[in-house]
Design a protein that fits this description.
mainly alpha, 434 Repressor (Amino-terminal Domain), 5 helices, about 50% helix, about 5% strand
Length: about 80
């Protein structure tokens, strides 16, 4: 049995993190992950668990749908 390829999860984590003036390390510390995990998320190389998505949203004072989507975000949104 082959493993099915996972659908991509698009995100605006970097955009909102930068707008808040946070480094990757600061966001990582706030949500309890390694700073490289934040980098993987921002580049779309890793899809967060629901718990991590909720923690990131809380840390960035945003709603999960503002940060993560299964459809690409429109530019400037």
């Amino acid at each position: 049995m082959s493993r099915q390829k996972e659908d991509p999860v698009f995100n605006r984590v970097e955009e909102l993190r930068v707008a808040k003036g946070l480094t990757r390390q600061q966001l990582a510390d706030a949500v309890g992950v390694h700073y490289q995990t934040v980098g993987y998320l921002e580049r779309g190389e890793y899809s967060p668990s629901l718990v991590l998505a909720l923690k990131i949203a809380a840390a960035l004072e945003a709603e999960v749908p503002e940060l993560f989507s299964i459809k690409p975000f429109k530019k400037g949104k």
